[in-house]
């Protein structure tokens, strides 16, 4: 065969031989070498020891639909807890219990009792946290204890081994670094606690949750002659003090009938309005925050509390309104009003008893260390700061009719807005006046833009929600009817299945 080919090729011209070589090389390139895929190695949790730890987590909540993962939600969610669960699963720090063939969207580890999973706070859509705490049982580097053998070595035998001391910081898995490599940049694990007490629960062991709600004064652009968006901080502070103590906050929350809550008493340890220090005296609107410390909070409680303070600060209500709404004997039903915007709210810290949790923070150097976390956060801050500078410059251009260099207005000082390099000037306020013609009322609710409503109706004169007992009873009845209807549907479906099976058997016999 080879001699035949040699004889054929010997008669070919150089041009034909080159063409043949190129043809063969082209065919060779098209041949794909398919390497068999290695089967994924299954994670066997029984081969590893575990330990119960606590994690201290910070996140910016603007891109997420809240903290809590909803396992049975029919709609796609994008929660912080979901990202944490996925990171724990991908790092194989927890076992994956997802059934083979089940949809990929179903997480195989929703934080069950075996994992001893707990969380301190359940922040809502848009809300951030700088001191969130969770507890979880995870895979450990510590060796499994040796199984006892029948042959017990006598003391002093050569086979006896000294137990090597295990160092939690040196020898253990670097949990924050592992998780930070897998989490989005705006969710960071700051520290971990190697030895929470037995039976630790991030929810029930937490003594106090501290919140901060940030806002500016003024809350909207205005001229020195206008007070539409200017807030009375002293009245706001006076009203905030009335929250302190043990009160029934049913008029300051959103009712979740599915939980059938009947007690709304919550303890507030501290409530105040604090001014945030500024880098320079003429740097524009002052920034404040509503500081709130409490043992626990109801659903949307903080946002309802600050919403009432905004109304008082605008002069639409008096500080005494807080005491009136806390008096359930006078006002057992919640008046209808809008809660404050979510974006400015931060779960600032979760406080535990002294000595309960010893935090081990990430070191400065190394992959996903403290320095790298700072770099990630700094880049986010830098982007926001540049946006602030650009929008401030644009406001200056618009307010001076496009010529900031020569307009004399820029030389004046606004006592409300400041006279810094990027302060808002007296001309940038026409929109608010136009929108408030007639009986329209501007309402400050902490968002980027004010709300424009009709004639203002005092809170205590507004329509009221139904009694809590009525709302809970209606939901319970509806849930009962739904469950009863579901049972009826199941019985009917079984009857149809039996009938179809009988028809099939009859057809086969014929």
TrEMBL record:
<dbReference type="GO" id="GO:0009982">
    <property type="term" value="F:pseudouridine synthase activity"/>
</dbReference>
<keyword id="KW-0819">tRNA processing</keyword>
<dbReference type="GO" id="GO:0031119">
    <property type="term" value="P:tRNA pseudouridine synthesis"/>
</dbReference>
<protein>
    <submittedName>
        <fullName>Pseudouridine synthase</fullName>
    </submittedName>
</protein>
<dbReference type="InterPro" id="IPR020103">
    <property type="entry name" value="PsdUridine_synth_cat_dom_sf"/>
</dbReference>
<dbReference type="InterPro" id="IPR001406">
    <property type="entry name" value="PsdUridine_synth_TruA"/>
</dbReference>
<feature type="compositionally biased region" description="Acidic residues">
    <location>
        <begin position="151"/>
        <end position="165"/>
    </location>
</feature>
<dbReference type="InterPro" id="IPR041707">
    <property type="entry name" value="Pus3-like"/>
</dbReference>
<dbReference type="InterPro" id="IPR020095">
    <property type="entry name" value="PsdUridine_synth_TruA_C"/>
</dbReference>
<comment type="similarity">
    <text>Belongs to the tRNA pseudouridine synthase TruA family.</text>
</comment>
<dbReference type="GO" id="GO:0003723">
    <property type="term" value="F:RNA binding"/>
</dbReference>
<dbReference type="GO" id="GO:1990481">
    <property type="term" value="P:mRNA pseudouridine synthesis"/>
</dbReference>
<dbReference type="GO" id="GO:0005634">
    <property type="term" value="C:nucleus"/>
</dbReference>
<feature type="region of interest" description="Disordered">
    <location>
        <begin position="141"/>
        <end position="165"/>
    </location>
</feature>
<keyword id="KW-0413">Isomerase</keyword>
<dbReference type="GO" id="GO:0005737">
    <property type="term" value="C:cytoplasm"/>
</dbReference>
<feature type="domain" description="Pseudouridine synthase I TruA alpha/beta">
    <location>
        <begin position="239"/>
        <end position="353"/>
    </location>
</feature>
<dbReference type="InterPro" id="IPR020097">
    <property type="entry name" value="PsdUridine_synth_TruA_a/b_dom"/>
</dbReference>
<dbReference type="Pfam" id="PF01416">
    <property type="entry name" value="PseudoU_synth_1"/>
</dbReference>
<dbReference type="InterPro" id="IPR020094">
    <property type="entry name" value="TruA/RsuA/RluB/E/F_N"/>
</dbReference>
